[in-house]
Amino acid sequence: MRNLLRRFISDSQGNFAVMGAGCMVLVIGCAALGVDIGSIYADRRKSQSAADLAAIVAAGNLGKAISAATATVTANGYPASALISVEPGTYTPNAALAPQARFVTPATSAANAARVTLRTETPLYFARMFTGGRSHFDITTRATAASTAVASFAIGTRLLALNGGLLNAILGGMLGTTLSLSVMDYQALIDAHIDAFDFLNALATRLDLTGVTYDSVLSGNVKVADIVAAMLSTQQAANGLNAATAALSKISLALAGLTTTIVPRALIDAGPYSAMTVGSKPKTGVSVAVFDLLSATGAIANGTNQIAASVNLGLPGIAAVSVMATIGEHPQGASWMAVGMQGASVHTAQTRVLLAIKLLGSGPVPVVNLPLYVEVASGTATLNAVSCGRPDVNTSSVTLGVTPGIVDAWIGNVSAADMTNFTSKPDPGAATLVSLGAVTVTGRAHAGMGNTTPTSVAFSYSDIAAQTKKTVTTTNFTSSLTASLLGDLSLKVNVGPLGLPIPGLGPAVTGIIGGATTSIDQVLASVLATLGVGIGQADVWVSGVRCDGAVLVN
Description:
single chain, alpha+beta, eight-stranded antiparallel β-sheet
């Protein structure tokens, strides 16, 4: 036995067979690496391409994302079961966010992106001996694509008629200075348009900010004088030396030395372009009338300060008008103009106006002193939809949901303290309308009108190109505000110890107010429009729309 073992150990026959068997295992392993792993990588690229295409198609058809992605997957030679998931979500193109944090599902607002997960199989050949006999290898690929459907829009109230004296008094009061512009100057400012991002670039230059984002420019405290100066440089660069440039120059000089500041974000919300570096410019057009931008700046700058002015509009039945106005804060985080996707919104500011109107009387009542208080709550416009006309952009459209601010009006005794107390609404007592010595007439009336249901307003591409302003009126606004107040007016004739009753005194006062209804409405409309709000109305306009096809993002 010992000899047999010694002979086996010393025998060298068959060594090559043993070595050959060992090398064959190595050859098969190399073949597995060269063929199977190469096949896996090739199929992974093919699967990733299919996932990319499916994500792009799904993001471009978010209303039918699953069916669109499924059709794309099957068209690329994979079974529908290979599509594991299609997740609509919100993609934020912000370089400051980590790539994995830019896509959020479910969508935080309106979905603008889709993530597709695909699982495919690659057959194994030589590698089966290392995988316990498994005949395939699972490949999981994922792709995210986002579509761009963005609009720029604003809310306010148009000036139906220009009155230089009224505009100088109100706008000057809002800006904290004295203005002496003509009607022609104001018309030039209304007609002149500048690009909002050109304005922000000019503002950054004036503030000596370089290499920062638009968000940085919008979030700081900036002097109103610097904002108007940036408007002036933008207007001059865009339109040259014309009447609007001269008018803005006058305003800029009038603001020299003033230290009032605002946060520009209350003016413009740059939306998805907030993270862009100053100096770069998005494709979306954001054109804005210089006067609209100026008026909004004044409204924001005013804060809760009171504007006091006497104006003469030359209206029938009115001897004099004294105006006191206060503008409340914008809703938190709100702006007057926005660039955004579905769900973005803009707001007007809460506004209070107290008019002391002296009405021309007749007979025993020479003058009626009418204290008219009007409060307009914040109005809102929300971007409900952007319909992208592909491939013809001229068929694109935008839909806004608009709710004008609710109006609350009084004839009564409202104090200056009531005007600045935005924590509560005034509940005034009766005011003295007529004073004839021992005989007085007091009165009180209240009217409220408003609609809390948004009205859908559609803008065609031609409306957008022309920046057409459309007016939304509250559904229960069926008559003039003054007429509504007259319907609720309660008068009381007070006769002192030495006074004598005057027959028909109450009806005479009512008749004088009623005869001046149209003029009173005009005063209200003119003053409120100068402040950027309307009586139960809101003007909205869309200044630009951008519809890009879906693209892969990370």
